[in-house]
Write a structure and sequence with these properties.
This protein is of the alpha/beta class and about 70 residues long. The protein is about 35% helix and about 15% strand. α2 links the parallel β2 and β3.
């Protein structure tokens, strides 16, 4: 099993970063069985998570496993 591990994407840190994330998932999609994020999806609010999870579903059907980081519990 191949897993792509990434951490601290802070996907709303600057404009366009969410699109970069989707491109990252799409580029690796055929090479891995799953993705694992060790937290800090967002920076400001948990409302960002809805957009992040929607973008994830649009980019891959692979499992995306995660734990929340210290910025994700707002």
């Amino acid at each position: 099993m191949k897993i792509a591990l990434f951490t601290d994407p802070h996907l709303f840190a600057y404009e366009g970063k969410l699109e970069e994330y989707k491109k990252f998932l799409k580029e690796l999609d055929s090479q891995v069985d799953a993705f694992l994020c060790s937290g800090d999806w967002c920076s400001v609010s948990a409302r960002e998570l809805e957009a992040i999870f929607k973008a994830t579903r649009e980019a891959t059907n692979k499992p995306v496993l995660s734990v929340f980081g210290n910025h994700d519990y707002w």
